[in-house]
Request: fold
Amino acid sequence: MLTHAAIALNRIWALWMPVTFHNVHNFRFAWLVVMGIWLAAHVIGVPPTIADIVISHRPTIISQCFFHEAGEDSYKTAALSINEILNVICFVVIVAAFPLVMWKQKVRAVWKKQITIRLKIQSTDSSTERQSRVLMGILTASILICWGPVIGYLALAAIADYDNLMVVQVLTILFNCQSIADPILIILALPVWRECVNEIVGECLTLRD
Reply:
């Protein structure tokens, strides 16, 4: 979720502040952002999970990603845990970023078209922008499908004290599927990655024969 939110903010930054984006953003900056995201995820997620297991004395096999509620007033009285609040913030950022990015790209396309007509020059290739829209759409859709129900359940649990083990198990499977589905969808959506995968598969088949 943090990675998706970072990608969404990255696209907003690139479209709404292109000058500062091109001046600041480079490979080193991207690498530092990715490392920071992974570090923040572990700093925020690991200590509460370990404390929850120790305090609640739960078997590790059922720890999963949800904190224990039964028998612990501190977990019952808290409306949302730090992880849940962070997930909600990331979810809102990702969903809100998609229409903002699409609108800005549409405005830029109209502006570029007017410039090419006035200057009587050939329009530049917009394949990169099309791929960006496709990628943004895939990531947003995966978040809505895999995390939307989870966010809804957390809100219902916080407001109405709703608890259903079967629903929790289904939602756990659903948002875990995102980690598998995202790479596959991205490879299928981007031509460059499709070509790389085809070459790798072709070489493997050749070596096997």
Q: What stands out?
A: The chain has a mean pLDDT of 76. Helices lie at 2-16, 18-24, 27-56, 73-77, 82-119, 127-160, 165-189, 191-208. The chain has eight helices and no strands.
